[in-house]
Specification:
The chain is α+β, with helices and mostly antiparallel strands and about 120 residues long. The chain is built from 5 helices and 4 strands, in the order ααααβββαβ. It has helices spanning about 1-10, 15-20, 35-45, 60-70, 105-110, and strands spanning about 75-85, 90-95, 100, 115. Strands 3-2-1-4 form a 4-stranded antiparallel sheet, covered by helices on one side. β1 and β2 (about 90-95) form a beta hairpin. The chain is globular and about 35 Å long. The chain starts with a helix and ends with a strand.
């Protein structure tokens, strides 16, 4: 997450998003939900060592870090950025495996319209 924060500040969102979107390939075809859950738990443990000033409003850096980590492990995950207009305009970013959010509840992201995906 530290590296992702630096990259976003140094390169900007567009460059980081494009770089991540072009790397990694499709992921492992034999990945299972157990693999994803083990990797998720490891990410959450490591995340405890990184203090964020903007938490919990750091969904972009957090989700890009998770996406890069899971893709690096060869897991076929998808990064999503969504927006909603009601009850208030908001944007949110998250990672999915098999159409299921990894660090979010499905109910928390279901009212967002996906505007970017990789």
């Amino acid at each position: 997450m530290l590296r992702m924060g630096f990259a976003l500040r140094r390169e900007g969102f567009g460059a980081v998003y494009q770089r991540l979107g072009h790397g990694g390939g499709p992921g492992a075809a034999s990945a299972s939900s157990v693999d994803v859950q083990i990797a998720r738990a490891a990410f959450m443990r490591a995340e405890n060592f990184y203090v964020r000033r903007r938490a919990p409003n750091d969904c972009l850096a957090r989700s890009l870090s998770l996406y890069a980590y899971l893709r690096g492990l060869g897991l076929p995950v998808v990064h999503r950025i969504g927006a909603r207009r009601f009850p208030a305009f908001r944007c949110h970013a998250w990672v999915e495996y098999d159409s299921t959010p990894i660090l979010e509840r499905l109910a928390d992201v279901s009212d967002y319209t996906v505007i970017a995906s990789m």
